[in-house]
Design goal:
The chain is an alpha+beta fold and 65 residues long. The protein has a single domain (5-60), classed as Ribosomal protein L30/L7 (Ribosomal Protein L30, Chain: A, 2-Layer Sandwich), CATH 3.30.1390.20. It contains 2 helices and 3 strands; from the N terminus they run E-H-E-H-E. A 3-stranded antiparallel sheet has the order 2-1-3, with no helix packed on it. It is globular and about 35 Å long. The chain starts with a strand and ends in a 5-residue tail after the last strand.
Amino acid sequence: MANKTLKVKLVKSPHGRLPKHRACVVGLGLRRVGSVRELEDTPAVRGMVAKVAYLLEVENGGDPA
């Protein structure tokens, strides 16, 4: 059974933001503006995405069939 995923793209720079917010961006594996990661949809990932949602674009990843 395939797990659901989220596609996360960094659209604003974390430069000058709160240290905890920068740590969330790094924890999501995003390095620079425009970088995209496909991450497993877990409560931990959802929490990090919610904290820095103003810096990200999020869409559902692959549809597990």
